[in-house]
Prior knowledge:
By secondary structure, the protein is of the alpha/beta class. It is 57% helix and 8% strand. It has three domains: 10-121, Rossmann fold, CATH 3.40.50; 130-198, Helicase, Ruva Protein, domain 3 (Orthogonal Bundle), CATH 1.10.8; 205-337, Zinc Finger, Delta Prime, domain 3 (Up-down Bundle). Helix 9 (205-215) packs antiparallel against helix 10 (219-231). The chain is globular and about 75 Å long.
Amino acid sequence: MSQPEPLKPVYWIYGEDRAKVDRALRRLVARVEAEGGMPAERFEAGEVPALEVRAACEAMSFGGTRLVLVRRADQWKAADVEPLIDYLDDPLPSTCLAFVSDGAPTPRMLKAVEASGQLLAFGPPAKASGKERIAWFTAYVQAEVKKYGSSITKTLAAEVVTRAGRAGEDAGHLANEATKLAMAAGDAAVSQDDVDALVVVDPQAKAYLLGDLIVQADARGAYAMLADLAGGSETTEPIVIQRMLARHFRGIAVAQGPGATQSDVERIAGLKGYPAQKAVEQARQLGPGAGEWCVARLADLELDLRVSSLKDLGEASGDGARMVLELGVRDLLGACRG
C-alpha cells in the first residue's frame, strides 16, 4: 500500500461548497493527529493579527507536527498577510499552517501558498461570471440528486437554484434541497410536481431580482416585479423589500469607494460570495456616488414605511405602504439612470 504524500507546510482551503471545505479540513486535522501531531491551534483572522499567527508557526514543537489553523482568512487585506508571506519563504518543518475561507487568497498570498504548499478550492471559480456561477450551482444540484440514485434535468435544477434566492448561492442549502427531491423521486427522475411541492420559494428572492432591475434602470421590469411582490401568491411586505434593497445598495456603495475590493464589500456590507461579486460589478455600471445616494434614499424609505402618514393612505390595508415603496423605487431608478 502506497504511503500518503508528506504533509505540506501550508494549505489554503476555500470555496463556497462549505461541506467539502469542512470535510477537507477534518481530514487534515485527523491526519495530523493520527501522525502524532499536537491538537490544532485555532485563530480567527478578524480577531488576531498575522504576526501573532506567525509567532505560533515559529514556536518549537515538542509533540510532533504543530497544526496552526486560521479561519476566515480572507478577512485579512493584502497588507495584513505580509508577515505570513515572509514566513512561507522559509517555513518551519514541524509546523503545518492551514487557512480556511470562503474567498480566494490575495494574489501574493496565492503565489506563496502554491510555492510552498497546496491550494484546495471547492466551488465555482473565484472570478466566475454570474452566468458561470449559476451554471456551477445548477450542475451541483444535478450531481447531488444523482448521489441518491435519482436524476433531475438541467432546467429543473436551475429552477431549484432560482427558487432558493440568495440561498441558491449556498451549496449546503442546495444539497439539502437536492436530497429532499431525490428521496421523494426514488428511482424515478425528479419532476416539476416534486419541485413545486418541496422547494419553497425564498420570499426575498424576488426582492433581490428587483435590485438588479433597478440598477439596470429597467423601470417596466421593476414595476412589474413590484406588482408581483404585492399581489402574487406569496406577498412580500414592503419593509422586507426595503431591507433587501438597502443591503444590496450598501454593498454597491462600499464597492464604489476608493480602492474597494470584494473583500471590503463582504466585510462591511455583510454580503458573501456572488451577492458581493454582483455588487462590485454593478458599482462599475453606476455613476460616482450613486450607491451612497441610494443608501440614503432607502434610509428615508424605511422611515416613511414606519412613521409617515402616507403609509396609511388607501382603501385596503397596505395600499399606502406599497405607494411609498413605489415612490422610493422611482427615485432609485432615477439615480441609477443618471
